[in-house]
Amino acid sequence: xxxxxxxxxSACHATTLLACIAALSTAxxxxxxDALAGFTAQTGSAAVAARGQEFFTKTHGREWSCASCHGxxxxxxxxxxxxxxxxxxxxxxFNAERFTDKAKIDKWFRRNCNxxxxxxxxxxxxxxxxSWLMTLKP
Length: 138
Prior knowledge:
The protein is mainly alpha-helical. It folds into two domains: 1-29; 31-133, Cytochrome c-like domain (Cytochrome Bc1 Complex, Chain D, domain 2, Orthogonal Bundle). It has six helices and two strands. β1 (78-79) and β2 form a beta hairpin. α2 (32-43) packs antiparallel against α6 (123-133) and α3 (49-57) packs across α6 (123-133). It is globular. The N and C termini lie far apart (63 Å). The relative contact order is 0.18.
């Protein structure tokens, strides 16, 4: 009976390890497509790239739009509107590190949406913007 108990303990440890790995993998988006899938899952509807482009380029009752710092087509280095600090290209095809870390995605959407919209963006707005950004190719 001892070998069977050892087997069960090992199986439980393996199952726990797999559950932890699965949880960690969802905590960090591996690609922009993974991040987009997360936002669309939250909304329950498909993202609309044209709506994302419109959101990105227009102001929303505040002084800045997303394009104020990232550029109307964010495929090149942008510049912060007030500090002048350079901002790496936002479109994932032009910057492979964009939208690969969920914590950074959440942080920057929270900060930038507050500057642009005066509130946190909805999952639908994030999905729309990201879907448009993913259409931009070299």
